[in-house]
Every structure is written in C-alpha cells, then in structure tokens.
Design goal:
The complex is a heterotrimer. Chain A contains four helices and five strands. By secondary structure, chain A is α/β, with parallel strands linked by helices. In chain A, helix 2 (about 60-70) links the parallel strand 2 (about 35-40) and strand 3 (about 75-80). The longest helix of chain A is centred in the N-terminal third of the chain and has 14 residues, at about 15-30. The radius of gyration of chain A is 13 Å and the shape is globular. Chain A starts with a strand and ends with a strand. Chain C has one domain (about 1-95): 3-Layer(aba) Sandwich (Hypothetical Protein Ychn, Chain: A). Classes of the chains: A alpha/beta, B alpha/beta, C alpha/beta. The interface of A and B includes residues 1, 2, 41, 100 and 108 of A.
Chain lengths: ~120, ~130, ~100
C-alpha cells in the first residue's frame, strides 16, 4: 500500500514528528511504500539543516534525510509555510525539497492513505 | 490497493476525483491552523476534487461575523470563507451541537452553510476518501 | 474509518469529540498523550468502556510504556506497536486525526 504523510508540527517541541517517523519506518518495514511526507505549518522546521540537538538526543532532521536517502521517500516542505518561518533552500537539509501546497493535495489523491500528524 | 482505486473511480482523462474533507476544530487567531488550513482548501480547488469543509468544536468560531483584527495587527482572513464559492467550494457543514454549546446562531455566521447534527457529521466523515484536519 | 486521537482527555476535548462522531464499523487509536485515556481507575474510564461496546479501541504500546502506563490498561483496549498502527491505517479506508 502507498502512504502519504502530513506533518504539521516542528521537531522536539511536539511528538508528532517522532510518531510520523516511527510510522513511516514501520510502514516501510512491512513492505509498504511511503509516497511522500509533506511538511506544513511549523512542520517545515523538520527540514532545517541548522538543527543541532545535544549528542544524547535523537537527530530528527538527519533521521528524515537518511530515510529519504535509503528508502527514496519524497520529503516536501511547503514553500509558503517555509517562507513564513525562515526555512528556505539555503538552510534545507539533504533529501528535502521545497514545493507548493499542491504537492499535499496530490499526495491525498495519489496515496492510498493520507495520515495526518499534528497537535 | 487496486480495490481502493476501484472504490474511488476514475474520471475521463484518467484523473482521480476523491472526496476531500477539511475538518476545522480550532478557533482562528489563537493559532495559525485555521488560516493555513484555509490555504490548503484554496489550492485543493484547483485539483478538481470533491471538496467539503466541516466546522465543529471551536472551528465554528472561524465563521462568526464581525471579525476585526486591526487591534492585533494580524490579517483578517474571514472574508476568504465568502470567496470559497468562487472556487467552487460550496459544501460547508457546520455542526449544530457545536453552535448551540457556544451560543452561536446560524444568522451570526458570515457565509451560508449547511447546519448538520453531530450524527450527520459523523456520517459525512465516513463518506470521505481523504480527511485533513488542522 | 480509523479515528486517531493524540491528546490527553484531561487537556482537550478531542477524545470526547471523536467518540461523539465515530460510527459503527470504525475504530479508535489512542497515541501520544491520548494513551492516558486508555488507563483504568479514572474519570475517563467509563467513556472508554462505553465506546468499547460499539467500537474497537487501540492504544499505542510505545506511548504507554514511555509514560509508565503499560500495566494499567483497561481490559478490552488492544495494545499495538507501530507496525500495528500501520496495519490499522491500511485496514480502514480512511483515517482521521482529531488534532
């Protein structure tokens, strides 16, 4: 099955990004496909390459980048939500791309299931 | 997987038309969810999908007439709900129980809506293909 | 439909609203802070027991464990891992997150 994910909260502040990541990994482990992860609202902060958590904490941004690299998951950051919050190409971590809200609607159309993670 | 595609049905030209419902349960201004949610609704209109909006819980406050945001220096986005018709987004469902609990009458809303019971709202949700809540 | 709730029932009305709208044939999954709603001996237990008469209720195990609540789950609430979360989404035609 083909899953689309929507993440509406930033990393660390709220558990949504962790839950979504664990969901994506479990889906891939079961042989499903994660068609796209769309980052909206404060969720765009999941894509900042400036993120530097303490050594003993999980690195949420790098975890996403690795997921994109290893499993080919399409990580899309909303351009308008990103601009609002200072998230632009210059500070985008590897594996993420910036695009429009249409990518979210397209995910809803193309994926068999769209799951929303937020606050 | 193929079963899902069959349930949805394919339109002429191969375009898939799904039933999208945007569920609004939060008040405006206190958080950005109502505003950024509305931005998704406007984009979805360009994809020729069967779009509806549901307003329940504090989401009904989004539609109250007379919003004036000058004092806060934030954008008053409430006129956008009136513009939805121009985007062919015409299915606005507002829950009766949510209005009553908050002492809001239908004539205090800034746009024509269909008032439905919680039970009917639950049934409408069941009919959707994609539900996005902010 | 799979209804996903992630808020403590003591903080917000998401669980109550979800239970007020869920139809027969649906299911409820409690994640994150909502797993407190899956536990015994509190104000919310009655609402979950009532819901269980009509709907299956699931709780995410890793969230229960992180909060020290794994030994206190209401009988009838089924504990699932992330793989089970994926299965639930796959089994239901749609999901709704009660944010």
């Amino acid at each position: 099955m083909n899953f689309g994910l929507l993440i509406n909260e930033g990393p660390y502040n709220h558990q949504a990004a962790d839950t979504a990541y664990q969901f994506a990994r479990a889906a891939l482990a079961k042989g499903h496909r994660v068609q796209r992860v769309f980052f909206y609202n404060d969720g765009v902060n999941n894509a900042s390459k400036l993120t530097e958590p303490p050594q003993d904490d999980r690195h949420i941004v790098n975890r996403w980048s690795k997921l994109a690299q290893e499993s080919g998951v399409d990580l899309v950051v909303c351009v308008a939500a990103g601009l609002r919050r200072g998230l632009v190409e210059d500070n985008l971590a590897p594996g993420f791309r910036i695009s429009g809200l249409g990518q979210l609607v397209e995910s809803g159309i193309e994926a068999d299931r769209l799951v929303v993670f937020g606050d | 997987m193929t079963e899902t595609r069959d349930e949805i049905g394919l339109e002429a030209g191969g375009g898939v038309r799904k039933k999208f419902m945007f569920v609004n349960r939060k008040a405006p201004y206190g958080t950005i969810y109502a505003l950024e949610g509305l931005e998704v609704v406007l984009i979805s209109a360009a994809f020729d999908q069967d779009v509806s909006l549901a307003f329940l819980d504090d989401g009904v406050y989004q539609l109250v007439k007379g919003q004036q945001t000058k004092g806060l220096e934030v954008k008053n986005f409430s006129p956008t709900y009136r513009a939805l018709e121009g985007y062919d987004v015409e299915k606005l469902y507002v829950e009766r129980e949510a209005l009553e609990a908050r002492g809001i009458r239908e004539d205090q809303l800034l746009v024509p809506v269909q008032v439905v019971s919680a039970r009917e709202m639950g049934q409408l949700m069941e009919q959707q293909d994609v539900i996005i809540g902010f | 439909m799979l209804h996903i709730v992630n808020k403590s029932p003591y903080e917000r009305n998401s669980l109550a609203s979800c239970l007020g709208h869920a139809q027969k044939g649906g299911a409820v999954l409690l994640t994150e802070d909502a797993v407190y709603g899956a536990t015994r001996g509190n104000l919310v237990e009655g609402a979950i027991r009532k819901a269980l008469e009509e709907l299956p209720v699931y709780a995410l195990g890793p969230d229960l464990e992180a909060r020290g609540m794994q030994a206190n789950v209401i009988e009838g609430v089924q504990v699932v891992d992330f793989g089970g979360f994926v299965d639930l989404v796959a089994e239901h035609r749609t999901s709704q997150s009660w944010l």
